[in-house]
């Protein structure tokens, strides 16, 4: 199993450009998440999905959109990149565990620099 | 969602036992306590999870007192490779829509 993979690993954008980050998991997990991590900070949840075709907002959703057309993929889009979106983006997935907080499995991250 | 408080940083020497305490005064009845480890330039990795009393696995132990308002992650005989940031999370059983990792505890192991 590859686990959770993220594409690309690193990207530089100019302000106003758009891009899509791809997250893929091969563990048949129902839940998928997108986080951002700024230098010296913890992770903040952007959007999440509890199943194919469903998405929901997290703590910091503004400026991002997501789609979950296939169970194994979770896409994060930036329509008009801003310097404030310079960050490391992590994708995670998990499976429902009745009555307890599920364990999240994280990808290696995508480092995004917006100039 | 229960807010957690952890020390910002800790230093320890190789071979020692390290205990990192997390406070979560507003923990709810259904909340589990989960610890993650994050190395530089990597995503967090699950270490251990517990609800009450003591949980032990091959990596760490988790001690939770009866009132569950705090928890302690114990790393036995640490090595340089244990240098990382450790996050304590307390969350609801379903729907982590507001789950945050906070700033964690930066553990530095000294040779």
Overall description:
The complex is a heterodimer of chains A (115) and B (111). Chain A has 115 residues and is an all-beta fold. Helix content of chain A is 0%, strand content 51%. In chain A, strands 2, 4, 5, 6, 9, 10 and 11 form a 7-stranded mixed β-sheet that branches. In chain A, β4 and β5 form a beta hairpin. Chain A is globular. The termini of chain A are far apart. Chain B is mainly β and 111 residues long. In chain B, the strands form 2 sheets. A 5-stranded mixed β-sheet of chain B has the order 1-9-8-3-4, with no helix packed on it. In chain B, strands 2-7-6-5 form a 4-stranded antiparallel β-sheet, with no helix packed on it. In chain B, a hairpin with a 4-residue loop joins β5 and β6. Chain B is globular and about 40 Å long. The model of chain B has no long low-confidence stretch (mean pLDDT 89). Classes of the chains: A mainly beta (115), B mainly beta (111).
Give a topology summary.
The complex is a heterodimer of chains A (115) and B (111).
Chain A: E1 4-7, E2 10-13, E3 19-25, E4 31-37, E5 43-51, E6 54-57, E7 65-67, E8 73-78, E9 87-94, E10 105-106, E11 110-114
Parallel strand pairs in A: 2-11
Antiparallel strand pairs in A: 1-3, 3-8, 4-5, 4-9, 5-6, 7-8, 9-10, 9-11
Chain B: E1 9-13, E2 18-23, E3 32-38, E4 45-50, E5 53-56, E6 61-64, E7 70-75, E8 84-91, E9 105-110
Parallel strand pairs in B: 1-9
Antiparallel strand pairs in B: 2-7, 3-4, 3-8, 5-6, 6-7, 8-9
Keyphrases for this structure?
heterodimer, A: 115 residues, mainly beta, seven-stranded mixed sheet, four-stranded antiparallel sheet, 11 strands, B: 111 residues, five-stranded mixed sheet, 9 strands, 0% helix, globular
């Amino acid at each position: 199993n590859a686990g959770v993979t993220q594409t690309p690993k690193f990207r530089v954008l100019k302000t106003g450009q758009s891009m899509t980050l791809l997250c893929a998991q091969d563990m048949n997990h129902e839940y998928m998440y997108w986080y951002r991590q700024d230098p010296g900070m913890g992770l903040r949840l952007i959007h999440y999905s509890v199943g194919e075709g469903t998405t929901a907002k997290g703590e910091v959703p503004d400026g991002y959109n997501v789609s979950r057309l296939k169970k194994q993929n979770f896409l994060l889009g930036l329509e008009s990149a801003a310097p404030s979106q310079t960050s490391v983006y992590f994708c995670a997935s998990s499976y429902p565990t009745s009555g307890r907080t599920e364990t999240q499995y994280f990808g290696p991250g995508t480092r995004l620099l917006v100039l | 969602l229960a807010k957690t408080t952890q020390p910002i940083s800790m230093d320890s020497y190789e071979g020692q036992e390290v205990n990192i305490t997390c406070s979560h005064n507003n923990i709810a009845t259904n909340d589990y306590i989960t610890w993650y480890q994050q190395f530089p330039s990597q995503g967090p990795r699950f270490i251990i999870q517990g609800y009450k009393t003591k949980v032990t696995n091959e990596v760490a132990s988790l001690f939770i007192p009866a009132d569950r308002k705090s928890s302690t992650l114990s790393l036995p005989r640490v090595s340089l490779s244990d240098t990382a940031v450790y996050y304590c999370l307390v969350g609801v059983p379903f729907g982590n829509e507001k789950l945050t990792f906070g700033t964690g505890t930066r553990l530095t192991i000294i040779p």
